[in-house]
Design brief:
Elements (H helix, E strand, L loop, with lengths): L2 H8 L2 H5 L2 H8 L4 E5 L2 E4 L2 H7 L10 H7 L7 H8 L8 H9 L5 H6 L1 H18 L6 E2 H6 L1 H11 L9 H9 L8 H27 L5 H7 L10 H31 L2 H9 L4 H11 L6 E5 L3 E3 L2 E3 L3 E5 L1 H4 L34 H18 L4 E2 L4 E2 L8 E3 L1 E3 L23
Parallel strand pairs: 2-7
Antiparallel strand pairs: 1-2, 3-11, 4-7, 5-6, 8-11, 9-10
Helix pairs in contact: 1-3, 6-13, 9-11, 9-19, 11-15, 12-13, 13-14, 13-15, 15-17, 15-19, 16-19, 17-19
Length: about 425
């Protein structure tokens, strides 16, 4: 297939439902493909890994927005994401990341393990009650969303009674990260951004007045002897980002992983028999069906990527999901194999923007699958599962299961206006 046609197909409902044939088509053109018109796509594992660290390739932050998307620069969702540490460059990015990363040190993440186990067990109790009579239970709503949102809210200090209404807001906001969405979706993203910013402004004010042992309290009070404190808007933008990033991707990891197991009974049985293998399974879930499929950069002064010239102002699409299926890096990449040696997927990115919450996501995934399968020996599919119809953040909208054993059934369903380029993670 022609490379341009393959990229165009990725943006279609069919491509968002199943991007992997189009990734394979792109691999046939090499690790880096010049699409013409100032657009370049990177699909090779090593090439993409290096591109994430290439200083000539910059995040699509405020400078990019003003250059390419100035008429929407004031939209709340566009402004929030472009000025958060997700898309900002140095020196601002390094300063904010240094302050926020104090909550994600290996020691702090390890200390969260008992809380993650407690929260997971409570949700499994609820699954058992809801499905006691064999009725289908939506794994996405009742566990895949509920666990990571509870964990990130515990970390941030969001009161328990406020957590349920975050899911639709963050889903609306995250549409702004997709390469294709409608005017109505952008309006919904803007409304969600305003609501979430207002919420965190109120919470930050409360924590300034009465600090607690949580991340919001730490960030509103933090001082850095070299760089000073976070500005008010900077604080709010990054609190919303931490909330959204803290559960959107992990929710997809849990849903994608369970769907893969339900479709592979031998692996389901193997992991149930040996819960200590959960970390290896999590890595293969990340590689095989990554929760984040792509990110993007631009080259304001031009760049060279693996010998391919990117013109000044050129756009570079980094297909993480394709790199994770690179046949040069992974033997038989289309096969699901948790025992593959040297499995290091690029799902969490790399370089200066490597995901801060990677260790926490791995902890949640390993804990969740070990406890879920141990708790429910008759866990099985119980209806038609539906995809969210998104490409950047790939996951399920629904995933009905039976925890007590019922007739099985599986299925998938996918779902538009293009904008100039892609905002990725």
């Amino acid at each position: 297939m022609d490379a341009v046609a393959a990229v165009e197909a990725l943006l279609s409902p069919e491509g968002r439902e199943d991007p992997f044939p189009y990734y394979a088509a792109l691999h046939a053109h090499g690790p880096v493909v010049d699409l013409g018109g100032g657009y370049t796509v990177v699909v090779g594992y090593d090439a993409l890994n290096r591109a994430l660290r290439n200083p000539a390739l910059r995040e699509e932050g405020p400078e990019w927005v003003q250059d390419r998307w100035a008429e929407w620069a004031g939209n709340p969702s566009v402004r929030l994401f472009s000025q958060s540490m997700l898309f900002s460059g140095d020196p601002g990015h390094a300063r904010v990341r240094r302050l926020v990363s104090r909550a994600f040190t290996p020691r702090r993440v390890a200390a969260l393990a008992p809380a993650v186990e407690r929260l997971a067990d409570g949700l499994l109790d609820r699954l058992a009650r809801l499905g006691a009579d064999g009725a289908p239970v939506d794994f996405m709503a009742e566990f895949a969303y509920a666990l990571p949102v509870a964990v990130i809210c515990e970390l941030l200090g969001v009161p328990e009674q406020d957590r349920l209404w975050f899911r639709p807001l963050v889903a609306d906001l995250a549409a702004q990260l997709e390469p294709v969405y409608s005017k109505e979706q952008l309006e919904a993203a803007d409304a969600a951004a305003l609501t979430l910013l207002e919420y965190f402004a109120d919470l930050a004010a409360q924590r300034r007045a009465e600090p607690r042992d949580d991340l919001v309290s730490a960030l509103v009070q933090v001082r850095d002897e070299d760089d000073g404190r976070l500005g008010d808007q900077e604080l709010l933008d990054n609190l919303v980002l931490l909330l959204a990033a803290g559960f959107e991707t992990t929710t997809n990891l849990l849903g994608n992983g369970l769907a893969l197991l339900l479709d592979r009974p031998a692996h389901l049985a193997a992991l149930r028999a040996d819960p200590s293998a959960a970390p290896a399974y999590v890595e293969e879930f990340l590689r095989y069906d990554s929760p984040v499929q792509l990110t993007a950069r631009w080259a304001p002064e031009g760049a060279v990527v693996e010998g391919v010239a990117v013109p000044p102002g050129g756009e570079v699409l980094l297909l993480l999901g394709a790199a994770n299926r690179d046949p040069v890096r992974f033997a038989r990449p289309e096969e699901f194999d948790p025992e593959r040696p040297g499995n290091q997927p690029l799902s969490f990115g790399g370089g200066p923007h490597f995901c801060l919450g990677a260790a926490l996501a791995r902890l949640e995934g390993g804990t969740a699958f070990g406890r879920l399968l141990g708790r429910f020996p008759r866990l099985e599919a119980a209806g038609v599962r539906t995809r969210r119809g998104r490409l950047t953040l790939r996951g399920y909208a629904t995933l009905p299961v039976s925890v007590a054993g019922t007739a099985t059934g599986t299925g998938t369903a996918a779902g538009d206006t293009c904008r100039p380029s892609v905002h990725g993670g």
